[in-house]
Amino acid sequence: MQLRTAALQMIVTARMPAFVDPVVGSQGRKLSLKQTAAGSVVIGGAYEGDVRLGSNGPQLGVPRAGRAASNLANAVSLFPALRAARVTRIWTGLEGMTPDGLPYLGQSQRIPGLFHAFGFSAHGFALAPLIGPLIADLLEGKRNNHALAPFAPDRFGRFDSAGSAQENAYKIGL
Questions:
Q1: Which of 10, 47, 82, 132 has the fewest C-beta atoms lying within 10 Å of its C-beta?
Q2: Helix residue ranges per DSSP H, 91-164
Q3: 3-state secondary structure 40-70
Q4: Dist. CA 43–CA 31, nearest whole Å
């Protein structure tokens, strides 16, 4: 299995007058945006910071100011009300990214009884309501009508130990 660690950045603004109600995503540009009930705006869109490595692999993410500025400019281009926004914080969260952007779901080919559900490529929160019950059914041996072949843990071949931690590419062999 192949998995790359990404440090995805998020921006939070100070409270401002309400201007958008739903969570917004944009086709063709990197943007996710929502305004909280308190008025703060949370802006994302898969702009990456830097991953810092520890002795056991990825340890933490560090924001990149230039990419955060690009993310904010992208949001302002669609929502001019954000021109007056004051950024209160920026952070990164480590995320497992697969080569095709689809998670690994299914039983391990090497360890009977072990089921994989990871590598959500920044879509874990959105997919969790579906994936939790699906994996529970698999664990309990229940049949379901979902075609899981596109998510097979071995779809990119067997584990290959080649690769450099410096390249931030991790191949996990379970």
A1: 132
A2: 124-139
A3: CEEEECCCECEEEEECCEEEEEECCHHHHHH
A4: 7
CA distance 86 to 106: 44
Tokens at residue 118, please? 């990871």
Kindly report the pTM of this predicted structure. Answer: 0.73
Tokens of 111: 């360890």
The one-digit pLDDT tens for each residue of the chain (174 residues) are 788 999 999 999 999 999 998 888 888 888 999 999 999 999 998 889 999 888 777 788 889 999 999 999 999 999 999 999 999 999 998 889 999 999 999 888 888 889 999 998 888 777 888 898 998 988 898 887 778 889 999 888 754 444 333 333 333 333
Question: Tell me, what DSSP letter sits at residue 145?
Answer: S
Q: 34 is written with which tokens?
A: 């929502």
DSSP label at 116?
A: E
Q: 7: which DSSP letter? A: E
Domains of the chain: 2-96 (3.30.9.10), 104-155 (no CATH)
Is 130 within 8 Å of 117 (Cβ atoms)? no
